[in-house]
Design goal:
It is a single chain. By secondary structure, this protein is α/β, with parallel strands linked by helices. It has helices at 18-38, 83-96, 114-126; strands at 2-3, 11-12, 64-68, 74-76, 79-81, 104-108, 132-135. The protein is elongated and about 95 Å long.
Length: 137
C-alpha cells in the first residue's frame, strides 16, 4: 500500500497495472500471429445478378451417370468406357448445346483409387463441363 506525502500521510489505494499490461501484450501477440493465417484469399466465382430471367427456359437434358467401381473401371450411363475416351465424349455433350449442358453425376466406389477420379475431373474440366455433381448410390 502506498502513502501519499501531501495529503497528511493517509493510505492511498493504487492499482498495480503491470500484470494487466502483460496480459494485454500477450493477447496482442496472439492476435498478431493468428490473423495472417486467417487472411489467405480464396477465389470464388459467384453468380452475378441479372436484370431479367431467361425468357424461354430450356428443358435440361438427362444427366450423365458416370460410375467408377472399385477396380477403377469407368461406366458412362452403365456402359464400360475407357478413361481416354471420356474427354471426347464429354466434349460432344457440351458441343450439343453449351448453354444447356447435362449434369455429370459421378458415383465413386469407396475402394476406388483417387487417381481415376482425378483423371475424370480433369477430363470434365478440359471438356468445359460446368455442371458436375457427386452422388452416392
Amino acid at each position: 500500500m502506498a502513502f501519499a506525502s501531501n495529503s497528511g500521510g493517509g493510505a492511498m489505494a493504487d492499482i498495480n497495472v503491470t500484470p494487466l499490461v502483460d496480459v494485454m501484450l500477450v493477447l496482442l501477440i496472439i492476435f498478431m500471429v493468428t490473423m495472417p493465417i486467417q487472411s489467405i484469399p480464396v477465389d470464388v466465382d459467384l453468380p452475378q445478378k441479372t436484370e431479367k430471367p431467361p425468357e424461354n427456359p430450356k428443358e435440361p437434358p438427362d444427366p450423365i451417370e458416370l460410375r467408377i467401381d472399385a477396380a477403377g473401371q469407368v461406366f458412362w450411363n452403365n456402359t464400360p468406357t475407357p478413361i481416354t475416351a471420356l474427354q471426347q465424349m464429354m466434349r460432344n455433350e457440351v458441343d450439343r448445346d453449351p448453354t444447356n449442358q447435362p449434369e455429370l453425376q459421378i458415383d465413386t466406389n469407396e475402394a476406388a483409387e483417387y487417381g481415376v477420379l482425378a483423371k475424370v475431373l480433369t477430363a470434365a474440366k478440359n471438356a468445359e463441363m460446368v455442371k458436375i455433381g457427386f452422388v452416392q448410390n
